[in-house]
Amino acid sequence: MRNREETYGLIVETAYKMFAENGFDKTSLAMIAKEVGISKPAIYYYFDSKEKLIDFLFDEICKEIMDQYAFTVEDLTVNNFEQYLLTIGFQMIEEQEKDVHFNKIFNEYILLATRKERYMKQLNKIQKGYFESFSMLMNHGVTIGAINQENVESKSNMLAMVIDNIGNFILTGLELDYKGIWKEAVKSVLLSVRND
Questions:
Q1: Do 119 and 90 share a structural domain?
Q2: Which of 31, 128, 176, 181 has a 20 to 30 A CA-CA distance from 50?
Q3: pTM for the whole structure
């Protein structure tokens, strides 16, 4: 028999998958409870409404995304900067390919954000943080001489947008060389230094 903590984790995991596959509107707490193997009234012990469960998952996903772009620059040098950029993208691509539900549920939240300001504010905060993190990273690259100063903000925005859009294409199931695309994007921002 599962304890409360295990049941709670199973509810969250099951809701994540079912919301991703069926959407928020077509998934009920009763469906989640049935899949978990508990009664509908029992699920209310953990989440007293579907909206609370949706909110909880949203907050957890936002934390996970923000952790992804917590870049560290202290140990970066001209010699390892390119590899660091490549590794960031490769890790994000691998995570996206491994978790087939992430983009689906995230798109549900984007749709929800068009109707609910709380979600829109948080999504804007995430996007802004994403661009700021890439900007900080690329400006550090300028400081250490790994990147040319010219158009550094555009270069950082381009990398942020490329990796974000790769995630969207992975969602469609289109099989492309995503790591190769990321590698070319990274090379394009470093090329101007090599040509100087």
A1: yes
A2: 128
A3: 0.81
